[in-house]
Amino acid sequence: MKYAHLVWKNLWRNKLRTAMTGGAIMLAVVLVCLLLTMPAGMDAMLNDFANNTRLTVHNKAGIVYSMPYSFVRKVRQVDGVAAAVAWVWFGGAFEEDGRVTFPNFAVEAEQIGAVFPDYPIKPEQLADFQRYRDGAIVGRQVMNKYGWKIGERVTLKSTVWPVDLDFRIVGVIDNDRAPHFWFNREYLDQALREKGRNGLGIAGTIWVRATDPRQVGSIMRKVDEMSRNSEAETSSETEKSFFSNFFGSLQGLVTIILIVTGLVSLCIVFIAANTASMGVRERAGEIAVMKAIGFPRRVIFGTLLAEAALLSIFAGVAGVLLALGLTGALKAAAGFSEMLGPLGNFIVTPFVVVQGLFLSLFVGMLAGVVPSFGAARKSVVQSLHEVF
Amino acid sequence: MEPVAAREPLIQILSVSRRYVRGVDEVHALENVSLSIAAGRFVAFMGPSGSGKSTLMNLVSGIDRPSEGEVLVAGQSLGELDEDELAEWRARHVGLIFQFFNLIPVLDARDNVALPLLLTDLAKSERLRRAETALRVVGLEERTDHYPRTLSGGEQQRVAIARAIVTDPDLIVADEPTGDLDARNAEAILELLRRLKNDFGKTIIMVTHDPRALRFVDHAFHLDKGLLLEGEDAERADRAVQLAAGGGLLSAAGAARPGGAA
Ligand SMILES: Nc1ncnc2c1ncn2[C@@H]1O[C@H](COP(=O)(O)OP(=O)(O)OP(=O)(O)O)[C@@H](O)[C@H]1O
Ligand SMILES: [Mg+2]
């Protein structure tokens, strides 16, 4: 610590050079921080559009036509399918309205959670949904519209099936824009049998969740293949499917980003090392005198290295702050304009901050270590002889 | 009669040679030099350029090691110390002054003088206090917070002398301390060194080309081509230097003494 004064004074010996070297390291840190936010940022952007590893399957003839219920089981067997759930349009109207004011479907209670894990539904409510035959899960939008509460009973008159059903609300999809009303498929099935009709042997739409977004395309192809030449050929679609191609190229992009990051860092190491060795050479006389006076090699080495480390820490902190400022500005800009929205995803996380600081420290130390070591190692006579 | 301790030589150089390898050649900078210097003496190493003066000085101050022979300072054989021990020994026992002042330009006079004290355990306030005391000894108490570039050459050299004495070393070694100064400043420095000997009992070894130095030193050793001149050769060299300094009139008391002892 008693050398702090010396190190500090030496650091500012040549202000312009120190500022330029620091500036180079700082810009490298900014660049690297921004580059490092990109993979995560792009991932987040994709998730915004395509958090959906989901796709839908419906009758090729149109969504009003159905598929045999047995087809759902076949779909579940397709490679890459994590879960699948059949929906059947109930077309229920609430009380006096007399017409359908929100979409309501009979769904498989035990499957729905696995296909929509991203929907904000409490696990215990999903469990209730499976437990109560007459249970229903309702989107927050509908709940709000009618002022419904959990535990309330509501009756829907179907405009499609010859039944009215009485439901108990057991859960809510906690999103203000969620318009769904889901109820148990079994419930409708039994109600129909009680009316002396056949059970519910159909699926209107099948929702499928893939284990991996990259497999969405192949699942769609296989499902449509399976139904070919059957009485109900299917058509699968997802608006997000084109993103799956994107995912493949993202991997390459990440690799390129890492390579660029490495090259930038290396470049700065060379620049900083050159400057450091110039600085050490310029001071050769003083260093020789200090050694002659009795400063041990480790102190010479240590103070020179500390100088490099100090400079790079300053530069690193400045660089990280600049990167934070830049991404913050991007985010603010994204707040103003919908078009810029996705840019808000590029966030300098604490991990990126740590990486940036380590990078600058690493650059500074690496640049400082060689000349410092050389200066410390050289024998005193040799240094004196070369200098005088 | 002098006390026994005073007659014990502080420095003993025993059959020392120093050769440098330069490319395929070997440079014989010093050949089989033996001499001794008593404590409290002010001696000069003189001789033409390349005669080995600096080499000898470096050996005495533990900056360099001989290829052959032994250097003893206050009974300590320097050859027994490793690199770091030698550095520590120098820090404790030797004050060094060079031709070019080599003050640290980013430190003010006081911090420059206090520099060697960084190697001690002294508190900062004590280090600075001692630095100020040393600056007072060299007459620069008014300049403590001046940076080297704002000081004249003579003043810078006095700061370097203050730095050399701040650790209170037994031995002060100076390589051409007046080499870069005009006559007036050179004499002031020589006078200052002599005072360090007289008032503080320091042993001082000075490498110099400067014939005026002869008036201030107790003894001059003459080197030529790596050899120490002795007997008649040494006397002749002394007379030549005195002549150069303005005719033997100014010969300092007890200067030329035959043999290799001061
Ligand atoms: N580190 C070294 N490496 C190689 N040769 C050296 C080294 N130091 C000194 N020499 C050589 O040894 C010889 C004696 O050098 P030294 O520096 O002792 O001379 P000097 O008497 O001090 O000369 P000057 O008056 O020019 O300073 C010279 O030939 C010099 O070139
Ligand atoms: Mg010399």
Concise structural overview:
The complex is a heterodimer of chains A (388) and B (262). Chain A is an alpha+beta fold and 388 residues long. Chain A is 58% helix and 16% strand.
Architecture overview:
The complex is a heterodimer of chains A (388) and B (262). Chain A is α+β, with helices and mostly antiparallel strands and 388 residues long. Chain A folds into 2 domains: 4-46 and 248-387, no CATH class; 61-232, no CATH class. Chain A has helices spanning 4-11, 15-50, 70-76, 109-115, 123-131, 140-146, 185-194, 216-227, 241-282, 284-293, 297-336, 350-377, 380-387; strands at 54-59, 67-68, 81-89, 92-94, 104-107, 135-139, 153-158, 164-173, 181-184, 202-203, 205-210, 234-237. Chain A has a 10-stranded mixed sheet. Chain A has a two-stranded antiparallel ribbon with strand order 2-10. In chain A, a hairpin with a 5-residue loop joins strand 7 (153-158) and strand 8 (164-173). The longest helix of chain A has 42 residues, at 241-282. The two termini of chain A are 31 Å apart. Mean pLDDT of chain A is 84; it is low at 241-246. Chain B has 262 residues and is α/β, with parallel strands linked by helices. Chain B has 8 helices and 10 strands. Chain B has helices at residues 4-7, 53-60, 83-93, 109-114, 124-137, 153-165, 183-200, 231-244; strands at residues 9-22, 25-38, 42-46, 68-73, 76-77, 94-97, 171-175, 203-207, 219-224, 227-228. In chain B, the strands form 2 sheets. In chain B, strands 6-7-8-3-9-10 form a 6-stranded mixed sheet, sandwiched between helices. Chain B has a 4-stranded antiparallel sheet with strand order 2-1-4-5. In chain B, a hairpin with a 2-residue loop joins strand 9 and strand 10. The radius of gyration of chain B is 18 Å and the shape is globular. Chains A and B meet through helix 1, helix 10, helix 11 and helix 13 of A and helix 3 of B. The complex binds adenosine-5'-triphosphate (ATP) and magnesium ion. Magnesium ion (MG) binds at residues 53-54, 175, 207 of chain B.
